[in-house]
Amino acid sequence: MSQPLRILYCHCAYAQVVPPETKAAVLRKLAESGVAFDAVADLCEMSAKRDPSLKQLAGGPVKIAACYPRAVRWLFNAAEAPLPDNGVEICNMRTESAEQVISALLEGQEVSS
Amino acid sequence: MKPAATAPIFRIALYEAAGSQPLNTSDRADLLSALLEKGYAITCIRPGRAVTNSISEGRLLVLGRFDEQKPAEAEDQGGAVKLHFRDIRELDVPKIVQLVDQVRGELRAPEPRSWKPWFPVIDYGRCTNCMQCLSFCLFDVYGVSTEGKIRVQKAQNCKTDCPACSRVCPEVAILFPKYKSGPINGDEVKQEDLQREKMKVDISALLGGDIYSALRQRSEQAKQRFSKERDEKRALEERKKCLAKLQEALDIPPEVMNALPSAEQIQAKTAAAMANSSD
User: Cβ distance B7 to B110 under 8 Å?
Assistant: First the structure.
């Protein structure tokens, strides 16, 4: 049986590198959408602590709203939870607009109106 | 503060599926934002998503506006996840955050936001295992695996906002995801980045191949020169100028510059790491 798609949102809570308005808009839209998702304070922190839940997140198809895809992939790798080559979509909140990110995250999802 | 590598996992599940009334959208967004700002991780459970998918081990605080009274505690089937149910029906957002803090305290889970996660991340797709980072880092962040591969061994030793090791990496293989600019922040590496990084390494090569040996040589030359001239003030100025150039070129924070160990200590550390890896 195939695993369901997960959505992961990183709040990058310990730095000011992601525009706050982008983070706020993406989180708000996700909260309004009615979809299940995981929201973490900071992926870097989880990677440094080798948080075992990263393995769960990397265990199947996942859409991630965080920062640069190269950074996100190697952060997972550093936590011994490498992301699979297929079924992973990483949206960069440092460079993309909130609309672009949310549209990619919710594409194909059943969203409550 | 060091990251608690072995501390139990504490996670929050906001349960809004069968047997629970959903929050209004505004409260949900405000609650998530408040908890994330405090450093918590939350799984939003909706119909079709199992609570136990949130984590594979640790403590899971399940918040919900439950239709029926829940037991305060339960275990998942394997016993690896302990569930703690709390009803939030009568609580506003600040009170829920307060409740989360209280339960975390009772469960003796570590306080979030106790460490700013600043540390290098190696892009093994680019790394050539040249060990320049290990030789260069002053704080034992890097080590060598039993397979002889460079690795980040003590992330907590890294000095916040110091990206110096990534500056000396000839392959631009060291990332600091929270760094202000690319390619160190994980942005794609462009040809001009490689050229720029190569130039930096070449500067170090021009100084004599090993920046520490260059600094040592320079210091000895200065000693000789100034011992003749007996001008300690000038020697100090020269040293300051040299360190300022290094600090500017590599974007090293002043507190890191003030904590420089000796070249001998650094060389001994590199030799020890290499020896340990071959044991």
Answer: yes
Q: Give the pair of three-digit tokens for residue B66.
A: 């439950």
Give the Cα separation of B181 and B159 in Å (integer).
Answer: 18
Using a cut of 0.90, tell me whether the model's pTM lies above it: no
User: What residues have CB less than 8 Å from B52, skipping those under 6 apart?
Assistant: B60, B76, B77, B81
Q: Burial of B111 by CB count in 10 Å (0-12 exposed, 13-18 middle, 19+ buried)? A: middle
Distance separating alpha carbons of residues B84 and B65, to the nearest angstrom? 14
| pLDDT confidence band for B206 (50 / 70 / 90) | very low
Cα gap B206→B132, rounded to integer Å: 16
Closest Cα in chain A, distance from residue B226 (Å): 45
Amino acid at the residue B166: S
Give the gap in angstroms from C-alpha B200 to the nearest C-alpha of chain A.
23
User: What span, in angstroms and rounded, lies between the C-alpha atoms of A68 and B186?
Assistant: 5
Residue written as token pair 């690319």: B182
**A2 contacts: CB under 8 Å, gap ≥ 6:** A60, A61
Residue B85 sits at the chain A interface (C-beta within 8 Å): no
Q: Where in chain B are the domains?
A: 10-106, 121-278
Angle between helices B232-250 and B211-229 (to 10 degrees): 160
Q: Which two tokens stand for residue B100?
A: 């989360």
DSSP β-ladder status, B121-122 and B150-152: unpaired
The 10s digit of each residue's pLDDT in B6-50 is 567 899 999 999 889 999 999 999 999 999 999 999 999 998 777
d(CA B275, CA B265): 15
**Does residue B237 carry a pLDDT above 80?**
no
A28 touches chain B (CB under 8 A): yes
Instruction: Select from A16, A53, A95, A109 the residue whose CB has the most chain B CBs within 10 Å, as the one to mutate to test that interface.
Output: A53
Residue of A31, A41, A68 lying closest to B39 (CB–CB)? A41
Instruction: Say if residues A32 and B25 touch (Cβ distance below 8 Å).
Output: yes
Distance from CA of A8 to the nearest CA of B (A): 9
Backbone angles phi, psi at B11, to 5 degrees: -135, 155
